[in-house]
Design brief:
The complex is a heterodimer. Helices cover 24% and strands 22% of the residues of chain A. By secondary structure, chain A is of the alpha+beta class. Chain A folds into two domains: 48 residues, no CATH class; 177 residues, Rieske [2Fe-2S] iron-sulphur domain (Rieske Iron-sulfur Protein), CATH 2.102.10. A four-stranded antiparallel beta sheet of chain A has the order 7-8-9-10, with no helix packed on it. The longest helix of chain A is centred in the first third of the chain and has 35 residues. By secondary structure, chain B is mainly α. Chain B has a domain of 177 residues: Cytochrome Bc1 Complex, Chain C (Up-down Bundle), CATH 1.20.810. In chain B, 75% of the residues lie in helices and 0% in strands. Chain B contains ten helices and no strands. In chain B, helix 3 runs antiparallel to helix 5, helix 4 packs across helix 5 and helix 7 runs antiparallel to helix 8. Classes of the chains: A alpha+beta, B mainly alpha. Chains A and B meet through helix 1 of A and helix 7, helix 8 and helix 9 of B.
Chain lengths: 240, 267
């Protein structure tokens, strides 16, 4: 090394090269890295979501049968890759704002079956009584009062179809009376509780759901997953 | 007449080859790259590396062709693949080669690694070539993973979702990894763009120079088990055996001279 360096570098030169090198390095690396990592910065650090935070209509709760979950397809508007938020806010009626990309989610809605005995890990799930459909739904399908809506919501399971194991779409099998995941065989009961297979917890539930006067169910793209629901299982909400 | 033409053609091509050799040294390079003495025993096993190279070349060529029709957006990806398969001339053939040679590639890489492993070809001085090979394997796995989503059909989509969620279980970086791959917090148009960028540009651009390094290191040390290496090692082995035998003879002599014990060391 000493032979290579004919003119010994002075302290101030070394410092100068160091500072200059750091500045040049930052100019060259920060823009491309931030460019590529911007989704990570937006979601993981700033906590933003691509999905529109508004309410989406699911369907009429009167359609949900007594001992069988009903599936509804809903579409959440997203602005991933195509969205331009400031245009959507400034000119909401322009064609460019109206033409929004959506992701399709399936929602399984069922009436809660009261748990007789809480299942333990490996016991094959909870022991359930028959599901309870609110009696009010036989008289009317819309125009509920505040207390009726609260009663309906307290008896309703609003579940995401995304398996808690690796996110495949689960389906209800009426013969077995279970939700079954096609990918690795995760099993859940009518409440979305864990029955068997590889999932570490029960199905994801929509945490923001409400029934309105028109008798329809509305949800937001929020689930009981993530750090604040750590007791349910070890993972983050990667629901597709 | 025909004889004279033949002579003229031979002379012209000889002149051309000499001219190129003088200016670029291409003939020497080609000879160096194409001719390789390999042991007679199991000679076919030494073609596995070339088979991998051939399959990867096929991937590059058919991939470039597929790019002429493929559209990397969520609205059109599936349709454009369908167009390639049904409308474009020889589309089924081109995409079929891309698909099947990708499958064969993984299998042939496995065989190639097995051959190198069981023949001890990773030992000094070829350790770094093994390391480069493993990096190449990881890049190929990355290509296989990212290529699956590009069809944007149910099979590829859910396989990629499952793959990304498997990645999300990694300690500490899991959440960042999946959001980096998804390009957000849901699988959508951003995900397809990212996988397209990785599959078509980033990973091939990374794999190409590493293949060059892999081949350079191969040519620098030669294939393991070349005649030269074997003869030298065999000569050394024979020399050692000869010396050991001499030592035994000397011991035997000592025994005859009346020293007891330790005589049953060999036999």
């Amino acid at each position: 090394m000493a032979e290579l360096q004919r003119d010994p570098i002075t302290r101030s030169d070394f410092l100068g090269f160091g500072v200059l090198g750091a500045i040049m390095g930052a100019i060259l690396t920060i823009p491309p890295v931030a460019f590529v990592l911007s989704p990570v910065i937006k979601t993981n650090i700033l906590g933003q979501s691509d999905v529109d935070p508004g309410w989406v209509e699911v369907g009429s709760v009167a359609e949900v049968k007594e001992n069988e979950p009903s599936v509804f397809q809903i579409e959440f508007p997203i602005d991933q890759a195509y969205g331009t938020k400031h245009i959507q806010e400034e000119v909401p009626e322009s064609p460019r704002s109206l033409e929004r990309f959506t992701i399709r989610n399936a929602v399984w809605v069922s009436w809660k079956a009261p748990i007789k005995t809480q299942g333990r890990q490996g016991s094959g799930g909870d022991e359930l009584a028959a599901a309870e459909r609110p009696a009010i739904l036989d008289q009317k399908t819309e125009g509920f009062t505040q207390s009726e809506r609260e009663e309906i919501m307290s008896k309703l399971n609003v579940l995401s179809n995304s398996c808690a194991h690796l996110g495949c779409p689960v389906r209800w099998f009426p013969d077995q009376k279970l939700f079954l995941c096609p990918c690795h065989g995760g099993l859940y009961d009518i409440n979305g509780g864990y029955v068997g297979g590889p999932p570490p917890r029960g199905m994801y539930r929509y945490t923001q759901a409400e029934v309105r006067e028109d008798g329809k169910l509305y949800v937001k793209h929020e689930y009981d997953a993530g750090p604040e629901h750590r007791e349910k299982g070890p993972q983050e909400p990667y629901v597709v | 007449m025909i004889g004279r033409m033949r002579t003229q053609t031979t002379e012209a091509s000889k002149f051309l080859v000499d001219w190129m050799e003088h200016r670029t040294g291409i003939v020497t390079i080609m000879e160096h790259f194409l001719y390789e003495p390999v042991p007679k025993r199991g000679a076919w096993l030494y073609t596995l590396g070339s088979a991998v190279l051939f399959t990867i070349t096929l991937q590059f060529l058919t991939g470039i062709l597929l790019l002429f029709y493929y559209v990397p957006t969520t609205d059109h990806a599936w349709n454009s693949v369908s167009y390639i398969m049904t409308e474009a001339y020889f589309g089924q053939l081109i995409r079929g080669i891309h698909y099947w040679s990708a499958n064969f590639l993984m299998a042939v890489i496995g065989l190639h690694m097995g051959q190198v492993f069981f023949s001890g070809g990773y030992k000094a001085p070829r350790e770094l070539n093994w390391v480069v090979g493993v990096i190449l394997l990881l890049l190929v796995i990355g290509l296989a993973f990212t290529g699956y989503l590009l069809r944007w059909d149910q099979d590829g989509f859910w396989a990629s979702v499952v793959g990304m969620k498997i990645g999300s279980y990694s300690p500490f970086v899991g959440a960042y990894t999946i959001n980096f791959l998804m390009g957000g917090d849901v699988a959508g148009p951003g995900t397809l763009s990212r996988f397209f960028a990785l599959h078509v540009w980033l990973l091939p651009a990374a794999i190409a120079p590493l293949i060059g390094v892999h081949l350079y290191l191969l040519r620098r040390h030669g294939v393991f088990g070349s005649e030269f290496e074997y003869t030298e090692r065999l000569a050394k082995l024979h020399e050692r055996q000869r010396l050991e035998e001499y030592a035994d003879y000397e011991l035997d002599d000592d025994d005859e001279n009346g020293r007891d014990g330790g005589g049953s060391r060999r036999e």
